[in-house]
Amino acid sequence: MASAAITLAAEAPKLSSANTGFMLICSALVLLMTPGLAFFYGGMVRVKSTLNMLMMSFISIGIVTILWVLYGFSLAFGSSNGFIGYNSDWLGMSNVGLTELWDGYTIPIFVFMVFQMMFAVITPALISGAIADRVKFSAWALFVALWLTVVYVPVAHWVWGADGWAFKLGVIDFAGGTAVHINAGAGALGVILVIGKRVGFKRDPMRPHSLPLVMLGCGLLWFGWFGFNAGSWLGNDDGVGALMFVNTQVATAAAMLAWLAYEKIRHGAFTTLGAASGAVAGLVAITPSGGAVSPLGAIAVGAIAGVGCAAAVGLKYRFNIDDSLDVVGVHMVGGILGSLLIGFFATGKGQSAATGVFYGDHSFTQLWKQFAGVGAVLGYSLVASAVLAFLIDKTIGMRVTEDEEVAGIDQAEHAETAYDFSGAGGGIGTSALAAPETKKVDA
Amino acid sequence: MKLITAVVKPHRLDEIKEALQAFGVHGLTVTEASGYGRQRGHTEVYRGAEYTVDLVPKIRIEVLAEDDDSEQLIDVIVKAARTGKIGDGKVWSLPVETAVRVRTGERGPDAL
After folding, report:
1. What's the CA angle centered on A253, arms A251 and A257, to 5 degrees?
2. pLDDT at residue A421 tops 80
3. Smallest CA–CA separation between B87 and chain A, in Å?
């Protein structure tokens, strides 16, 4: 995150109402991304697991919010030896003054904490798309809590904590290409390597049940992403946040067009799902890079990510890995591309003076730093997430039974059905409420 | 009596309804159906994965008719349903033993 503390003068920063208000709005925008993600994923699954897909995102809002305020923020952003932080005052935000400023910035710690909370909420939710249709809800809830603690918190500390080793090394990750997207994508890969494929993968058709829902979710993600990206500078005093805002829009447009063009050439059609996927690929790739590149660089980053991710999503069939909704193909690949492209396209005129291969003295230094950040996050998240999934699988079990999966996880895990389109009310026989003496109702 | 069943393209429904009304048919039943004939299906692409969708949406229309009217009625439906392209569907008839109007209890041709 923001490397350059306000450089205007030697005097300590004062609380800025403008920046504080802006950051609170950005926090709400980032929160909106998680319901957006729920719809983006929810439309892509089959009817019988729509609710489960929505719920996997929503439960993350619940669990992560609580854990973040209790200890997550303290461990992620407290001072440290470089690997995991700690600040006892921030446990439960119990000893923090309302106007106490986040060090070096013009916003209260409370504001920074809640902004970062929303990042922590969406990151595990991103993983859920890879494991659609087949994971016990209780196992997922436990996974979210453990993953936040064991994977997200340390990685966020490495990349964004003032004492984090990657931050100190000079790895550029403006808003979460490594800490959010590579982290979630590699985590997803680790989990699916443990839990395996859906019943009928590659045999049964598993086409999206509602592309309009996918487009709605994509729109909410795109909108919320401005808070995610532009907000990550924590203020607007030097224009870098605005550069990020512009680049977010430009790269996303370029990626959507690039994915569509790739698809038209390879598969003969401009698909709706391709437009939505391309947009998200662009958003992912510009997330780490948007503060370092120019708008022309953002076009390049977006276009490369659009084509790169469009090509990557087909690989799961070749490797026979059921990354159900292409979390690895879009978030891990997009995150890697965005993070590494900084090493080529950084102009030195944005968030820092570091330049990529195409600018300044054409040095590869920044590129190697980016490789270090990407490799460390990818490797750690992949292994740690696989271990967590393995442990949960050996204790309470990760998957629903095959019968439950085939019949639909919504009924098995949530006792609900997503849609009732029949005029007479969906074939429900008698109300349990109407006959309390004959039927015992638990709930 | 005969039961005439037509499985046709959904967008021909209005034409068929109008033609049947003009012919003097006072009631029919329509259900959404899916299926395939010689037409087979079509191909859809989702993130590069191609799916053959072989069950195509159709409309199934059922009409009860008196024996004397049935052949003519079939012609009316066929004419209204035809686009000349593959996938126009099929129409057939079966003998019906009895029919009852639920409200009045009338039986046989009186129930139509």
Report:
1. 115
2. no
3. 23
pLDDT above 70: residue A110:
yes
Contact between A266 and B49 using a beta-carbon 8 Å cutoff: no
Please determine, for residue A115, whether its predicted confidence score (pLDDT) is greater than 70: yes
CATH fold of the domain at A18-414: Ammonium transporter fold (1.10.3430)
What residues in A contact B55, CB-CB < 8 Å?
none
Residue A310 near chain B (CB below 8 Å): yes
Which positions in chain B touch A43 (Cβ < 8 Å)?
none
What pLDDT digit, counting tens, does each position of B34-51 carry?
988 887 778 889 998 888
Nearest to B51 among A207, A310, A317 (CB): A207
Residue A324 forms contact with B (CB below 8 Å):
no
So what's the pLDDT on residue A430?
Answer: 64
By C-alpha distance, the chain B residue nearest A45 is B46
10 Å CB burial of residue A27 (0-12, 13-18, 19+) is buried
CB contact under 8 A, B45 and A207: no
Nearest chain A residue to B53 by CA distance is A205
For A28-61, give one letter per residue: b (16+ CB within 10 A) or e.
Answer: ebbbbbbbbbbbbbbbbbbebbbbbbbbbbebbb
Over residues A210-225, the pLDDT tens digits come to 999 999 999 999 999 9
Contact A180, A152 (CB under 8 A): no
Q: Domain boundaries in chain A? A: 18-414
Residues within 8 A of B (CB atoms), A 254-273 only? 263, 266-269, 271, 273
Task: From chain A, pick out residues whose CB is under 8 angstroms from the CB of B46.
Answer: 207-208, 271, 273
Structure confidence by residue, pLDDT tens digits, B3-43:
999 999 999 999 999 999 999 998 899 999 998 888 777 88
CB-based contact (8 Å) between A393 and chain B?
no
How would residue A3 be classed by pLDDT, with cut points 50, 70 and 90?
very low
ipTM: 0.81
**If you average pLDDT over residues A324-346, what whole number do you get?**
97
